[in-house]
Write a structure and sequence with these properties.
This protein is about 30% helix and about 20% strand. The protein has a 5-stranded antiparallel beta sheet with strand order 1-2-3-5-4. It has one domain: HIT-like (HIT family, subunit A, 2-Layer Sandwich). It is globular and about 40 Å long. The protein has 3 helices and 5 strands; from the N terminus they run βββαββαα. By secondary structure, it is of the alpha+beta class.
Length: about 120
């Protein structure tokens, strides 16, 4: 299998934290500054495939990820693309600082594109 997330080259600069089953790191191609991803270390396609034995760890990391973004930027917009719409077919959850939550995704994207 040639999955980018399964063969992730992690560096101390990009990883905020990791556990036995998950890693929380900066997005390689961020929407805006502060865009992070919560990724499973095991290759799965969707959130419902996270093993029951890892559910508590996953819930704890969602809260930790939220608080991490909130402390460094603003409260995040959190989203998961549906499996058929994932650019990388490996489960990952997006945490994007408050600019999107405040202005809406479409307006924030339009404004970001105008500025580039």
């Amino acid at each position: 299998m040639n999955c980018v997330f399964c063969h992730l080259r992690k560096s101390k600069e990009t990883i905020a934290f990791e556990t036995k089953h998950f890693v929380f790191l900066q997005a390689k191609f961020p929407i805006i500054k502060g865009h992070y991803l919560l990724i499973t270390k095991k290759h799965i396609h969707s959130e419902i495939e996270i093993p029951k034995s890892q559910t508590e760890e996953y819930i704890r990391l969602n809260k930790k990820s939220y608080l991490y973004i909130q402390s460094k930027f603003k409260s995040p917009l959190i989203f998961i693309n549906s499996p058929q719409d994932q650019s990388i077919k490996h489960f990952h959850k997006h945490f994007v600082p408050g600019k999107f939550a405040k202005h809406g995704v479409q307006n924030a994207l339009i404004n970001a594109l105008k500025q580039s």
